[in-house]
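G., before I forget:
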Amino acid sequence: MKNLLCAAAVVGGLMTALPAAAQFAKAEDAIKYRKSAFNVMAVHFGRIGAMVQGKVPFDPKVAAADADIALITARLPYTAFGEGTDKGETRAKPEVWTENDKFKAAALKMQEEMGKLNAAAKSGNLDTIKAAFGPVGQACKQCHDNFRKDH
Amino acid sequence: MKNLLCAAAVVGGLMTALPAAAQFAKAEDAIKYRKSAFNVMAVHFGRIGAMVQGKVPFDPKVAAADADIALITARLPYTAFGEGTDKGETRAKPEVWTENDKFKAAALKMQEEMGKLNAAAKSGNLDTIKAAFGPVGQACKQCHDNFRKDH
């Protein structure tokens, strides 16, 4: 998967969202989509975590590939929190909509940190990756604490 | 999302899979992951379909961005059909494993057609995209018919 992506282009394009409005026919489709995107992101982010924590051997190419997928998917879910998607099979708290500016800022923070992790992964240096990994996890946690129900 | 990806690099890297073995701690994690990846792929492929079918106005940039996401996610699910992932919340037929060569060929066919659709999307020409869209849908359907339970 080396060279799958051009990282600079990825990071540069990060904040240019796809048009979010009216993308989903049904609210449940939007909910399923955002959960799917978060899941793919979490899996690849988690694989970097396993290397950072020494649970699996560090492979720079694999880490870089995982970081690419994590970064690409990090921007997708936020197109799917439209009106009417607050009910159903979702753990999203009402604050996603009632404090939407804060939610968007938290999303942006995560994407920024994920971008930094992506750049770190391109370095091929495990210590550099370790330093960038923690802030992503913190950004995940902060958003979960504020905007996601425990169960 | 313009320039998010470098399409040639994406297509070139398509067949270089991430290491598939032992990527998931639990079978249910693998199943959730592959369903998530398929879902994200289907959403973005479907958005191109909506333009092809005239249901939404054609926007070349949006189509190209959707094609990038669809292509990237098209290669992810097949890392998650390992041993022991044939049971649980999955519609995968036993043939995924008993006729694994055919399954892999069907997956590859879909990825190839998705690569062609990606190239077509980069042209910005709706007729070119239309011509490349159908074969992807056929590849999806053929794999579903042979390897996915109806319900």
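Chain A touches chain B through 33 residues (CB under 8 Å). Chain A is about 65% helix and 0% strand.

More on Monday.
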